[in-house]
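Researcher: Please predict.
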Amino acid sequence: MEKHWWHKATIYQIYPRSFMDSNGDGIGDIKGITSKLDYLQKLGITAIWLSPVYQSPMDDNGYDISDYEAIADIFGDMADMDELLAQANTRDIKIIMDLVVNHTSDEHAWFVEARQHPDSSERDFYIWRDQPNGLTSTFSGSAWQYDEVSGQYYLHLFSKRQPDLNWENETLRHKIYDMMNFWIDKGIGGFRMDVIDLIGKVPDQEITGNGPKLHDYLKEMNRASFGKYDLLTVGETWGATPEIAKQYSNPDNDELSMVFQFEHIGLQHKPDAPKWDFEKELNVPALKAIFNKWQTELELGQGWNSLFWNNHDLPRVLSIWGNTGEYREKSAKALAILLHLMRGTPYIYQGEEIGMTNYPFQTLDEVDDIESRNYAAEALENGMPIDDIMDSIRMIGRDNARTPMQWTAGSQAGFTTGHPWLPVNPNHERINVEAALADPNSIFYIYQQLVTLRKENDWLVDADFELQETVDKVFAYIRKTADDAYLVVANLSNQQQTFDLPVQVADVVITNTSAPQALASKSLEPWDAFCVKLA
């Protein structure tokens, strides 16, 4: 298998609105990101995945783009972007742009033209019908919006202000590839592709994900843009199976480097229930089965995994699967060790490396996210008590990931000198970067160790994955090469657990506990986690 830089990379996701505000307007910006590059260099990450900074009316916080080749005023301008690229480059940090090409904003010039002039070529850049069918929007309600101006319905699988693009139009596709090349020419390190599995949709058949022409489009995109360079491309694919992931990420297919699959994230929700019906406890045996499937069925050379717990659309993993009380630091380290030593490219979401948690939202007035607000409106209409609605938003809502980064214990967590666009978590007085850097045993330094381990050790790329038989709450696996074997163990519970493997330890690789003693004592304390090289 040909090795690429991203096989040994760790990627750090930045949500620009919430990372660092340089001008006191309460909204994070590009200059703010540039000011924190030394911090990210200290963490050791290889690349930043930058959530959208393009021009946008911000109906969906930048995932509704009105100009792909301009920067939103709230984030700065193209000169700021060029400076970020240059400064990151001097620190050997690549910038991965967020590519949102399933839909645009309704303020994009293409859609404005399509709406005002139904006979224009841009009309066919979008999907119009005389009558709606049963397709529904991810943000609730019908996926069809009647347009008074031109007398037809247009498709929007997300907000009504995010009309879906018609990928069957060849002219449109090549305009998108030209835009991608604009960014490639600026020296970016690749693309994260938002809901890319939807671009092959066949709306009249109510097919949205994994449509029949999806892979043809991706091969064409590869040929026309990034395929000529060594760039990282990762597709957001909610419906992927290991077989489908091979189609995307097998090097012989000339499509993408890897995909984000979300099967493990599905365990946050009750089976066959809406997103907002959350599970109160992690089903560890199910988590083991899912990771085992993805680690063993997406074989080396036939595809590649991404590894993540958090992103801008998900709750903080510590709040949903970890322990935010007595074992906050230990459980954060355990979840990190368990994930980062699997095969794949790990992603760290801003604040994960210091153990940030969900926000204790009290009222709907504190909630910004369009998805959460739509859910609340619909649930209230159906008679659901507001307390139950707020319980779901506090646990699952997307704003939990979007509260400002906690830099210091001071005013507004050092994020802004102004009034932040979302409230700062009150726990910033004890959970912040300044405190983490000052404590040699903090979560930050475990993440730093994991990033370094991946850079320096080929076994993290090459070794096979073998799930170990254990009690329910213990997740243990061996990574094995022809010459060496490494055992990774994590107790994912607040209780002591039995653990007995007849092995001798040659060396401790990383631990949040006294690993060899844990092996010798045949039991694990709550949230014990470690990796050892076996004799």
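Model: The first helix runs from residue 16 to 19.
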